[in-house]
Amino acid sequence: xxxxxxxxxxxxxxxxxxxxxxxxxxxxxxxxxxxxxxxxxxxxxxxxxxxxxxxxxxxxxxxxxxxxxxxxxxxxxxxxxxxxxxxxxxxxxxxxxxxxxxxxxxxxxxxxxxxxxxxxxxxxxxxxxxxxxxxxxxxxxxxxxxxxxxxxxxxxxxxxxxxxxxxxxxxxxxxxxxxxxxxxxxxxxxxxxxxxxxxx
Length: 200
Description:
The chain is an alpha+beta fold. The chain contains 6 helices and 9 strands.
């Protein structure tokens, strides 16, 4: 698999730089660049399939969207912090428009964000690749370089293997339980002619 070089993008916030690689928008702030824990924002999905944006240790779910702007709300139910992103209609890349005036009522969890990014990457790969699940988990754990706190919160590898294997099985089409199938008309005619050749 060939690696893509990040493409620089423009943000309305001068303290934010954005790069995109492998169809994933990555946002870097000055404060995050000096952090060794996590320095990127990633898009993922919740267990119910809703769009999820992770930034600075906080997770936001998509609240509503227009043609250009997407309105996000903190995933924590009692927290009313919001975030607005603007989508480029040509590149389909999001940039941060504004952060809501309401501050978070809870501390950020960088470890939780690390785990979220890790799980999103493994889930994507088990759906798109045939690499053994255990090997995918091992590769992604080395790639993301999880902090000690994230490693303590992470599920046991054997349990992760079972969960991600279940995710892969969802992509496998069901085996037909019926012997009935549709025969193409062309195949039927060709078989009939071979069986009962026309004698001149």
